[in-house]
Amino acid sequence: MEKKIIAVVQDIVKGRHGKYVVTTSKDVRGSITFSLRKEVWQEEKYPEPGTLVVLSGVYRKQNGWRASTARFFRPENEAKH
Least buried of 23, 51, 60, 79, by fewest C-beta within 10 Å? Predict the structure, then answer.
């Protein structure tokens, strides 16, 4: 089973390829980013700074960590975290 990472949204940035989110987590050194494209961000509403999110499919690229999918941290996640 793939490990899911709990992260905190720090900023939303408009980049060359569209909007993306910058997060930090105590489990990973440095920031983790993810795209707000529908195939990555699994929610209807965009996150805000300070929001907890669940990241999966995290991998390293030359410029830093990326997440393949992301969603809001929900009450049902509390028991697993």
Answer: 79
Contact 20, 68 (CB under 8 A): no
Q: What is the pTM of this model?
A: 0.90
Q: What domains can you pick out in the chain, each with its CATH number?
A: 5-76 (2.40.50.140)
- Over the stretch 5-40, which tens digit does the pLDDT of each residue have? 999 999 999 999 899 999 999 999 999 999 999 999
Greatest Cα-to-Cα distance within the chain, rounded to the nearest angstrom: 38
Q: How many CB atoms lie within 10 A of CB 76?
A: 7
**What residues does 11 pair with on adjacent strands?**
22
Compute the CA torsion angle 53, 50, 7, 75 (nearest 10 deg): -40
